[in-house]
Write a structure and sequence with these properties.
Elements: H1 2-30, H2 35-47, H3 56-66
Helix pairs in contact: 2-3
């Protein structure tokens, strides 16, 4: 098992170098920092058994139904409602 891991390590490093930013963006899009987007996704998951947050089409339709505007992922500042 250890030989397999040692042999796979260079491949994992290459994959991380090639797709690391895409993977990070994928996770950030699927689990946004924006509170309104998080809440909208949670409602869509609870109300629609076919909703998948990992598909951008599903997220965009969910945001449109919830009337969430793209805030660029920024969190509201102190005192914001």
């Amino acid at each position: 098992m250890n030989r397999f891991l040692i042999g796979a390590l260079p491949a994992l490093i290459v994959l991380a170098a090639l797709f690391g930013r895409d993977a990070i963006a994928f996770v950030e899009d699927s689990y946004p920092n924006d509170r309104l987007k998080r809440e909208a996704l949670a409602r869509c998951e609870a109300n629609d058994g076919h909703f998948r947050r990992f598909f951008s089409e599903h997220r965009n339709a969910c945001y449109a139904r919830a009337h969430v505007q793209d805030s660029g992922g920024a969190m509201p500042g102190p005192g914001a409602n």
